[in-house]
Each structure stands twice: as structure tokens, then as C-alpha cells.
Amino acid sequence: MDWDDLRIFLAVARADSLSGASRRLAIDASTVGRRIARLEQVLGAKLFVKTPQGYALAPEGERLLPHAEAAEAALSDAREALSGPGDLTGQIRIGAPDGCANYLLPQICARLCEDHPGLEIQIVALPRVFNLSRREADMAIAVSQPQAGRLVVQRLTDYQLHLAGHEDYLRRHPPILTREDLRGHRMIGYIPDMIFDRELDYLTETGADWAQLTSNSVSVQMQAVRTGAGLGIVHDFAIPFCPGVRRVLTDAISLTRSFWLIRHADDRRSQRMNRIADALAQGIRAEVARLQGLITLEGPSQERA
């Protein structure tokens, strides 16, 4: 059995389609299809079932999957054993909610790339939970701890969020001194039926019944706040990127959430993955502390409460 055929099998199993696998492997979809057909012929088994949604694993494919993943892990271990504990190399895909992906990961990953020129980092920013079993990402950052699955879960750091508005918006409206003063203000938040994690349900913290301007993206919400469209709950670590955005009612409305690093259980044996996870964890802790420290240093003039 050819390892390259197994590699293509894994890509199709994780992407659920020939086209998705071809993009990840950088080969054309017709070649992917031919290689899968060849592997099925060699094994004498049907590995996939074509459905309207794409390619689903057949029972034989389900049985092959853990063995293919074990071969993948063994090959990675062999590369590490030969290369030793030097520079990190190869591709790593990190999934994250878009707030973390926009305001934290770019500078953290830039430093990693500087330290390890042979490392290729892909940041996938999606407002939903990642499926590591399908290898949508090699590791993922989440805002709540998963309760099921063969996963390694590590708490990274706490972070703070506050109600905020742009100084132009605040100048145009009466002072906000209590929660009652929020009545009549335009609120910005998540689309209710697209909140993919209960930790993102911020609106109840403000006492507001609804938000007039909503998005499934926290970055879009922050840009709406920055343009003076209203008030919204924002990450403290994002405020330094948005000049003019000021926190309000910091004593009355203050949220604390956590970031979690999630990895597939099989990756615990990989020294390379452990090193990347450690570097990512240290970077996120340091960057959250640095950016939130910038808000603290600005003191009361940053707030209107």
C-alpha cells in the first residue's frame, strides 16, 4: 500500500469532497479521484460513498481511517526523530474564533515564523466550533471547554470584555452613568440564532432586550462600534486596534471569558505538535496580557462611567 495514496485518502475523508482535498493537497481533483479509485482497487474495498453533500466514508473507509492516521503520526514521529529538536518545519493549520484570529494570532504567528523560517502557518478564522476529528485544523482555540471527543484540552488564559462605543458616538448621546441610561441606545451584537457557543451570548449582560445591528462575526461587530454605529460588548484586547473606542459602565458590566487550546488526542505523541502548542499558548497569554495592559494604562480617561 502506497503512503501517498493513504495521504490522499485522509485528505478526502477530512474534506468530504474531491475538490476540498485537491485544494489542500495542491493537486487537481481528477487526480485525487483516480488515486482514490486505485487505492480502492488495491484494497478490494469501497472506501467512500458519493452523496449530495460530497464523499462520505463507507464502512470500510471508517475501518481504514484510524490506521491511516496512525501511519501519518508514525511518519511525523520519524521526521522528528531524524531532524532533532531544531527548527520547527512543515505546515500547521490553526482554527480560531475570529476575534482571536484577527487581534491575537497574526502577531503571535509572525513571531513564530521569524523564529522558525521553515514553518508554514495557516490561520482559519471561523465563527463556529472546529471538528478536529475531521482535521479541519491541526489544533483549535475555543471559548469553552469541549465535553466530548478524543481531545487534549488546555486552558490558555482568561480575557476581559466590556461595553464600549466610539467617542464620536458617545459625544452625540447623553452620558451613560447607569444601566438605565442604556435605554434608547443602539446596541450591536451577535445574530441570536447564529451564536455557536453559549459563552458568546453577551447581550443579557447589558440588560438590553435586543440588538438592532447584528453580525455572526465579532470583528464586524467591533468595526460597527468603531464607526460610531452604537454600543457593543468588545474584547479589551481588541480596543488598542480601534482608536477612539472607549469603554463605558466598566464597574457595572464586565465579562470574563477563557481561551482553550484543543488538540487531537493522537497528537500527544508528537514532539513537534507539543512544541507548537507550547509556543502558541505562551504567545496568547503574553499578547492578551500586553494588550489588556494598554487599556489599564490609559486609566479613567478611557472610560465613561
Automatic annotation (TrEMBL):
Q: Which domain of life is it from?
A: Bacteria
The residues covered by the HTH lysR-type domain are 1-58
CDD domains, alphabetized: PBP2_LTTR_substrate (cd05466)
- Molecular functions per Gene Ontology: DNA binding; DNA-binding transcription factor activity
One Pfam annotation, family name? LysR_substrate
Provide the alphabetized UniProt keywords. Answer: DNA-binding, Transcription, Transcription regulation
- InterPro entries, per this entry? LTTR (IPR050176), LysR_HTH_N (IPR000847), LysR_subst-bd (IPR005119), WH-like_DNA-bd_sf (IPR036388), WH_DNA-bd_sf (IPR036390)
Task: Tell me the protein family, please.
Answer: Belongs to the LysR transcriptional regulatory family.
The family database entries (PANTHER family) matched by this protein are listed as: TRANSCRIPTIONAL REGULATOR, TRANSCRIPTIONAL REGULATORY PROTEIN
Name of the molecule in the record: LysR family transcriptional regulator
Q: Species name for this entry? A: Paracoccus litorisediminis
List the lineage, top down. Answer: Bacteria, Pseudomonadati, Pseudomonadota, Alphaproteobacteria, Rhodobacterales
